[in-house]
Amino acid sequence: MATFIALFAGALAYAAVLTLAAVGFLLLYKATGVVNFAHGDLLTLGGFLAWWAIDDLGWPVVPGSLLAIALLAVVGVVLERVAYAPLRKRPQMTVIVATLAAALVIRALIGIWQGSEPRRLPGPLGDGAWHVAGAAIAWQRVLIVGVTVLVVGALVWAFKYTSFGRQVRALAADPDAAQLCGVRVRRVSMGAWALSGALAALAGILVAPLTVLDLNFGFAIMLGGMAAAVAGGFGNLGGAVLGCLGVGLVQQLLGGYVLRDYAGALPYLALFLVIAVRPQGLFKTHASRL
Amino acid sequence: MTETRNTFDPAVASGADPGADPGADPGAGPETGPEAAPAADSSGADTSAAADGRAPEPSGMHMLTAGLDTLRTRVGMAPRGTVKPPVYRRHQYLGVLAFVAVTAIAGPNLVSSAEGSNLLDLWLLYSLAGLGFYWIFGLGGRFAFCQTTMMAVGAYTSAYATEQHGRPFWQSALLGALAAGAVAAVVGLALARAQHFAFAIGTLAVSQIGMVVFARTSDFTGVNGQVTGLPYPSLFGHTFDSDRSAFWLFLGVLGLALLLGVFLERSPIGREAVAARDGEMVARTAGISVRRLHLMLYVLGSVAGGLSGALLANWQGFVGVDQFGLDLGIGIFLMVILGGAGSIWGPVLGAGFYVWAPKLLQEFKEYQGVLYGALLLVMIMICPEGLIGLAGRVRGLLRRAGVAGPAGVAGVAGVAAKVRAALPGRTAAPAGASASASDSASDSASDSGSASASASTGKESADV
């Protein structure tokens, strides 16, 4: 029972991590139609910026993390100006390659700035754990699940009730019609990039204390999030959350009990099967922009 | 895009553009295709006949390409002008032979150091893998993340056949290539219905599964995915026991693969692939079996990848999981994009760049990633057709500038030399090789028809 609870908590936390990563690039995808392959490296950058603020500047954990999140929002806008805005009228493949190039640059810059040795980022709640029925659940995991629920809730609310959210939804539904109706594409695009960068930093800062922070840290998480988002039906927020939950459960429970050695491959196997059987994703009902 | 008016130059960017896919706009395909094609057909034939005094293309194919151009205009892309099917370009096979000859002469003579010949071999093998990726991505328009996984499958299979069953080199290499092809066939069939992004993510899943499986199954891939102590490759009783001798083997294999590449481009398969890539709905309407075509190109490209991996394993004597990681995956993608995804010479040129750039920039080693990324960004913004496209563009500009007389010829030669000097991936060693690659490719990409590098200057003066 204790093992099950620990594994289940692990699954929930892992799903929350993937969800946090996934909402960042899904938001951007909805607003601009870009699949941002630099998102994973933004996660890494967020982690390293927080580490820099906390360790080098000596800030406390929470303000340091907030600083990193704010900085990443700025980085998001810079990326929009440098790598996306000049290519907005170009074919999508060009833009995707540009984001991949941006990912390479960001990763290399982090390597030059901080070196490649792995770090350990402190969490805001310390190293304590919550003991339930004999299982120890790290506070950080509880925090991740809580923050993820808050973030997803806030995003759903914002999509529904704010002007920005409605503009994003209009752009996702039909970019040309939205533009004709007066949606300010440029402004929404910059806002979405900033928000996406901030979400990436948030995800990176929350996940980093549970694992080691190195140059490949974010990219792996992003791939997992992308896999979950595709399995859920790309562009569909609810589907992505469910996909992340499915990936978390498959990896932790199935990998924890049965196929221990191959746990890392299980989510991808599930993803492959989903794409083979239902290429549009599990919860997709209509054609998407891709 | 106006420079490429007379050239058949499928740009990367438009090729795999999901936005231009008529599937995204269900009304566009059937509506534009038949209705607009005849008009565009006649005008297109006029211009092509007027421009170079040649007979217009066969009408069926031409109607199709004209229809595609109309489609492009409709979805907001520049029409490509007169499209010249590759079969009208001359001396393409000779171009391959010239490339092999020039490399064979220049390579060993210019490279003297041990490291140099090592890099030369690596370049040939990466070119082979890149060529495979070009078939999948450049020609087929499908982005497969798992080219390095196919290389790993080839490497492990050939290592297994050699070590556990004592097969001779040629059999185990062939087995490696076939195993990669078999894996690709299964994956390709399973992902047949997946569209662009889903296919990319599905193949990404394959590569992630492969990573874990190779590291964990110790009886097939060795403990932790490490196989060591493979014997040198040997063929017909001759053992290729050094980098210098293996060069000949790899050059031969790459030459054969390039010949196959030219054959593909000139065959109906190549034309159908381009049509399916640029306008899937139109291609389907014209009776092209797009799925079978995609599957075939995917399997073929994977076989090239597997063969490259098998040769790499036998040459280096060991196989490790890390060799075929994400870095090389991105590297292969870089090769094809930087070199140019519109021509079989793109990957060859790009692989040269990928192999030699780190060596040239040794003092800037830590900035290498920044440089790659920035270069990729600049390239995709300024010249999405890659280095090959850049060379073709310069040529087109020169021709348009109307260089005439002896002075003009001198000017052409001077600028061509400058372009060659400016091409990255050029060192003292491979200068002949990479320059000749770009030369012959841009030749065959333009309509001058002089594909052989050695004859290019003479031919140019004749042109002018």
Automatic annotation (TrEMBL), chain A:
Gene Ontology CC terms, in alphabetical order: plasma membrane
One MF annotation (Gene Ontology) recorded for this entry: transmembrane transporter activity
Phylogenetic lineage: Bacteria, Bacillati, Actinomycetota, Actinomycetes, Kitasatosporales
Keyword Transmembrane helix: yes
Family statement drawn from the similarity comment of this UniProt entry: Belongs to the binding-protein-dependent transport system permease family. LivHM subfamily.
Pfam families hit by this protein: BPD_transp_2 (PF02653)
Transmembrane segment boundaries: 6-29, 36-54, 66-83, 95-116, 136-159, 192-213, 219-250, 262-281
Domain of life: Bacteria
Protein name: Branched-chain amino acid ABC transporter permease
Compartment annotation: Cell membrane
Membrane topology qualifier: Multi-pass membrane protein
Chief site of localization: membrane
InterPro entries noted in UniProt: ABC_transp_permease, BCAA_transport_permease
UniProt KW keywords: Amino-acid transport, Cell membrane, Membrane, Transmembrane, Transmembrane helix, Transport
Family annotation (CDD domains): TM_PBP1_LivH_like (cd06582)
GO biological process: amino acid transport
From TrEMBL, chain B:
Subcellular locations according to the entry: Cell membrane
Stretch forming the signal peptide: none
Membrane-traversing stretches: 93-111, 117-136, 173-192, 245-264, 295-318, 330-357, 369-391
Pfam family, one: BPD_transp_2
Keyword Zinc: no
Principal localisation: membrane
Domain of life of the organism encoding this protein: Bacteria
Matches recorded under CDD domains: TM_PBP1_LivM_like
InterPro entries to which the protein is assigned, alphabetical: ABC_transp_permease, LivM-like
Topology relative to the membrane: Multi-pass membrane protein
One Gene Ontology molecular-function label: branched-chain amino acid transmembrane transporter activity
Residue ranges of the region described as Disordered: 1-62, 428-464
Annotated keywords: Cell membrane, Membrane, Transmembrane, Transmembrane helix
PANTHER family the UniProt entry points to: HIGH-AFFINITY BRANCHED-CHAIN AMINO ACID TRANSPORT PROTEIN BRAE (PTHR30482:SF10), HIGH-AFFINITY BRANCHED-CHAIN AMINO ACID TRANSPORT SYSTEM PERMEASE (PTHR30482)
Protein name: Branched-chain amino acid ABC transporter permease
